[in-house]
Amino acid sequence: MDFLLHILAGASVGFAIGVTGVGGGSLMTPLLLVFGYPAPVAIGTDLLYAAITKANGAYAHHRRGNVDWKIVILLASGSIPVSICLHAFFLDTNFQNSPQFEELLTKSLGMMLIVTSIILIFKDYIRNKSVEEVPGFFMIPLHRHRSTITWAMGLLLGVCVTLSSVGAGAFGAAILLTIYSQTSIVKIIGTDIAHAVPLTFIAGLGYLFSGFVDNLLLISLLLGSLPAIHVGSKVSAHLPDKILQRTLAIILLALGAVYIV
After folding, report:
1. 87 within 8 A of 202, measured Cβ to Cβ
2. CA distance 192 to 207
3. For residue 213, which phi and psi values (nearest 5 degrees)?
4. What is the DSSP letter of 233?
5. What is the mean pLDDT of each run of 10 residues along the chain (261 residues)?
6. pTM of the model
7. Contact of 248 with 120, CB cutoff 8 Å
8. How far apart are the first and last CA of the chain?
9. How many domains does the chain have?
10. Distance set, CA 37 to CA 30, 102, 106, 134, 194 (Å)
11. Containing structural domain, residue 250
C-alpha cells in the first residue's frame, strides 16, 4: 500500500514539474517529511531522485545546444567540492547521531523553500531585469568578473543543495539570469539543469553512503514521476502556468515558514 502511495506521490510531483518546471526538491522533500521520513532520508532520497529525473532534461537541452558547458564546469568546480567536503568533514558520523543534525536540515530546507517562493513570485521581474547591465552589483563590475562570481555561486549552491535538496532549480536559474544577463532564458534553464545533475548526484551519494537513502522509496517515486513529467509537459500549454506557479510559490512560502519556526 505504501509503495502505491509513493508512486502516486511521485506522479503528483512529476506532473507539477512538467507543468511549471519547478517542484523537484521544493515539493518532494516536504512531501516525504509529511509521510514521516526523517529529514536526512527525505533529502538524500530526493537528491538521487532529482539527479535521475533531471538527467533526461539535461540531455535533451544538450542535443538542442541549450547548455553552456563552460558555465556548468565553473559552477561544478565550486559546488561539487563543497558538497563532498560537507559530507566528509561536517555531516560526519558524530554529527549525524546528534539531535542538531535533523534540525539543521529542516531549517535549511525551510530557508530554501522561502527563497524559492520569493524567486517564483518575482520571476518575471528578474527575467525583465536580466537583459540589463548591472554594473554596481556586489560593488564590482559584474560582467567583468563573472567567472569568479559564477564559481562563488557554485559554492553557495553546493551548500544549499547538500543541506536541503533545494536550490538547483529556480534559485540556480535566478542566479544565472543575473550573472549572464545577455544569455537567452532557454540556455540559462538548460545550463542550470545540466549543472544540477552532477551536483544532486554527488550530494545524494553522500547520503547514500551514510545510509540515508531509501532505495525502494526512490524506485517508487521514479515509477510515478517519470511518465507524469511527460504528461505534465504536454498539457502545460493548455494550463494557466502563471496562476499555477504563484499558487506553488504560496505553498512553498507557507511550508518554509513551518520548517523555519
Report:
1. no
2. 22
3. -125, 130
4. H
5. 85 77 73 88 91 85 89 95 90 71 82 81 67 48 76 92 82 81 81 90 93 93 86 70 70 77 64
6. 0.82
7. yes
8. 33
9. 1
10. 10, 11, 12, 43, 28
11. 2-260
